[in-house]
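Quick note —
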Amino acid sequence: MKKIIALSCLLFLCSFAGHAQKFALIDMEYILKNIPAYEMTNEQLNQISKKWQNEVDAIQQEAQNMYKTYQSDLVFLSAEMKSKREEAIVQKEQEAQDLKRKYFGPEGELFKKRASLMNPIQDEIYNAVKEISEDKGYQMVMDRASSRNIIFASPKIDISDEVLIKLGYSK
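Predicted structure written out below.
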């Protein structure tokens, strides 16, 4: 009876060993740096961002100039003219804030542009990782670049170069 129980326990433990999970790591920053389309997209986004920032800065500068002119002309203005100029300055500052929100807000033009340009690249990487993990039987693939919880990982389980090769960017 003891032998049967011991044998059952041994078989039970062996069944867990047969289901060992395989893990892999990727370094998304490394992968993205080695994809020329990503670098071109990033440069394009930077140029658009600078252009839009210059537009916002120009309107803010205009508002500051209006305020300086208002300050220098303050003693010569009637109460009605003061209020009109103050309203114009506030309106110009509001215009700058609205433009900034339109371009750089959480649902602004830059966010939409980044999503439309980056999503195809990220989808391509995801599909390559998925294919490799299905071929090699990985149950989980973690991103080394975004996970702060990984203190050390063996380079043997890093499949970043395999992903680049799968995408056609061999090292």
